[in-house]
Design goal:
By secondary structure, this protein is α/β, with parallel strands linked by helices. It contains 12 helices and 9 strands. It is 31% helix and 13% strand.
Length: 354
């Protein structure tokens, strides 16, 4: 099994932290260890009645519940339609088998030349840096990914990077997972050291949900290490609703911004959560206030167990048309979808009035 807590991850390097930095490191790790790990415990913490829990608790379908305290604190107690709760609470609909909703909708297996690497885009490659997250999002397109077959140790990272070093056109490495920021600083910094040895690599992109769901992870030591990297660093957040951004998240983004890290956001368009123009407009404005630029608005992938989140391309186009009407261009994300076998994301234009 892939470890779910940072305490279980094997340390690969020693990083010297001052007392203040060490306290920051221990704080976020303790918060992660205190995460809620069952639907019943989550609903109890949100003050749902026993009767409500009987109606709401559903089988996890082999994808465990996981939500950190900082994220739960932004949910509305007793509200079964809370947009944050719906992202992490297992639902009975997940057990319904639906044609075309499969375990590997993006056919990533065929672009997995060596464990831990997804290499399908020209000039860039994705490195599975971690097999665990700080939160388990129910719509996750990798909820069925075989992390247990792709465990990461320092030796395996080196093997992955040796493979990538053979590509002379590789300019950008994308750290994904799981969530790369769920790694401890010693582990993450050791990986960065190895990546920075590749002479053709110019940019490092980190895809992470942690600045949103566990903002204390954005420590001074992390910001300092990223700022000192010879690579241009881009942090791609994953935020789906304006309610996810509180003062702590905004402060975390401000720290990253001050460390000269470019901040982008990807949103997944989700039924019952954000498939509404007013919600998406509020999200874009809230992100920009936190110095994050809206980047992609993803149509949901056809992942087994996620059909209840599905939003059709036409719905997405209609929403984009309204966003373009009501927002300045720099606050309008691009509507995209991923298609198996394609070497790029498919850009979907907004519907035009006839």
């Amino acid at each position: 099994m892939i470890p779910e807590t940072v305490a279980q991850v094997e340390p690969h390097a020693q990083v010297m932290l001052n007392p203040e930095q060490d306290a920051e490191e221990q704080q976020w790790r303790q918060q992660l260890a205190q995460s809620v790990r069952s639907p019943k415990a989550l609903l109890q913490q949100l003050q749902f009645s026993d009767q409500q829990m009987q109606q709401l608790v559903a089988d996890e379908q082999g994808f465990n519940t996981l939500a950190p305290p900082a994220y739960i604190a932004r949910m509305q107690p007793g509200n079964a339609q809370d947009p944050l709760l719906l992202q992490v609470l297992p639902q009975a609909a997940e057990a319904i088998a639906t044609p075309d909703f499969i375990t590997d909708p993006l056919a990533e297996a065929q672009f997995n030349p060596i464990p831990g690497v997804v290499h399908k885009y020209h000039g860039r490659a994705l490195l599975i840096a971690a097999g665990h997250c700080a939160i388990n999002c129910r719509y996750c397109f990798r909820r069925h990914y075989p992390y247990n077959e792709q465990q990461r140790s320092r030796k395996q990272w080196q093997d992955s990077l040796k493979h990538l070093a053979k590509d002379p056109y590789l300019e950008e490495i994308i750290l994904s997972g799981g969530d790369p920021l769920a790694l401890t600083n010693p582990v993450l910094f050791a990986l960065l050291d190895e990546i920075e040895k590749l002479p053709q690599v110019k940019r490092l992109r980190i895809h992470s949900r942690l600045p949103v769901v566990l903002p204390d992870r954005i420590t001074s030591a992390l910001c300092q290490r990223l700022q000192n990297s010879p690579l241009q660093v881009i942090m791609v957040l994953h935020c789906n609703h304006g309610q996810e951004i509180d003062d702590a998240v905004e402060q975390a983004c401000q720290k990253l911004h001050q460390a000269d890290i470019s901040l982008l956001n990807q949103t997944v368009l989700l039924n019952h959560i954000n498939a509404d123009a007013d919600v998406l407009i509020a999200l874009s404005k809230r992100l920009f206030k936190a110095r994050v630029l809206p980047y992609y608005l993803h149509l949901p992938d056809h992942v087994a167990g996620t059909q209840h989140f599905f939003v059709s391309p036409r719905q997405g186009q209609d929403l984009m048309a309204e966003l373009q009407t009501r927002l300045p261009g720099y606050l309008v994300p691009r509507l995209v979808k991923e298609e198996p076998g394609r070497a790029y994301k498919t850009l979907i234009a907004a519907c035009t009035l006839s």
